[in-house]
Design brief:
There is one protein chain. By secondary structure, the protein is of the alpha+beta class. It has eleven helices and 14 strands. β10 and β11 form a beta hairpin. α4 packs across α10 and α7 packs antiparallel against α8. It is globular, with a radius of gyration of 21 Å. The model has no long low-confidence stretch (mean pLDDT 90).
């Protein structure tokens, strides 16, 4: 924590992610939960975190993460002015200058978000219905929802598909069975039946999609209330209201099925199903150097609506 005249003025976390280091066989360090009143506060906070990482022999140091890449992470660098969806960060625009000009951090990877709304559904069909039909004729493809009542059986499958389909991504963070189980239990009461879909090819599990309801809608509803009333109001909203927006957070397909067009079928099916429940939503995030998902987004007629960036120290 940083203090100015006895009042909190900023914070930072120095993060050791042993799971990441073991998977990637590196000594990368991380920082996160980084907020500050101005650059004069940001500099000593970051310096303190970097000293901590150096003491442990970790380099380079990347961030911001909260605390991993499977959680809220990165800095918003383009697409300001709108409320972020659930699980995505938001920061003042001037943070970008502090990171790049004042702190001397370099961009390591950019993430993209794409807006979706119900009016696009007709365009999806016009652009892709013929292609989707031809792909379905090539091989037996179907999707099924994860059975949230059978988490002991489903969580290991979700973990395996997540790890095997996404492990080539930059800075990939493995998803353990325990993490998948905890996440599903925390959100089980707020997920629609088609939120987590398993793609199957010829009856074999081949891919995974995850859509999260935008719980920030409900948090925005209670923000203006007195503090003592916020929690009871939020609990009531969680029980009585469904979210109008969703965030499609994961599209993962096993490598052996990508070249035959299975990822396109998964994205198409997941978004079509979501339109039956949500008025609008967002695909976020996809790494800017991910050619497959970004190409599919262009096929859908989408353009990036937000850009996020992970930074790292240079050697």
């Amino acid at each position: 924590m940083a203090f100015r005249a006895g009042r909190p003025a900023g914070r930072i976390a120095s993060i050791v992610n042993r799971t990441h280091n073991e998977f990637h066989r590196d000594r990368t360090g991380f920082f996160g939960f980084f907020s500050f009143a101005d650059s004069e506060v940001a500099r000593p906070l970051l310096d303190r975190a970097l000293r901590d990482q150096a003491d442990q022999g970790r380099s380079p140091v990347r961030g911001p993460f909260g605390p991993t890449q499977n959680d809220e992470c990165a800095l918003l660098v383009d697409g300001f002015g709108r409320r972020p969806p659930f699980g995505m960060p938001y920061n003042p625009p001037w943070y970008v200058d502090v990171y790049e000009r004042d702190l001397g951090l370099e961009g390591a990877c950019d993430f993209l978000a794409y807006d979706l709304d119900a009016s696009m559904e007709k365009g999806f069909d016009e652009r892709l219905e013929g292609l989707v039909g031809r792909l379905r004729e090539r091989f037996p493809f179907r999707v099924r929802p994860v059975d949230l009542k059978r988490l002991d059986a489903e969580a290991p499958l979700v973990s395996r598909l997540f790890n095997e389909s996404l492990s080539a991504e930059w800075n990939f963070m493995p998803l353990t069975v325990d993490m998948a189980m905890t996440w599903a239990r925390d959100l089980a009461g707020h997920l629609d039946p088609d939120a987590v879909l398993i793609a199957e090819v010829a009856g074999e599990p081949a891919g995974l999609s995850i859509a999260l309801p935008d719980l920030n809608e409900l948090l925005a509803d209670v923000r203006g209330l007195p503090r003592w009333l916020r929690l009871p109001r939020l609990v009531w909203l969680l029980k009585t209201r469904t979210c109008r927006r969703a965030r499609w957070a994961v599209f993962g397909m096993l490598p052996e099925y990508r070249k035959v067009g299975a990822t396109l079928l998964l994205v198409y099916e997941a978004i079509k199903r979501g339109h039956g429940r949500y008025e609008s939503g967002e695909i976020s995030w996809t790494q800017a150097d991910n050619p497959e998902v970004n190409r599919i987004a262009r096929q859908f007629g989408l353009q990036p609506s937000r850009r996020y960036r992970v930074y790292e120290t240079h050697p």
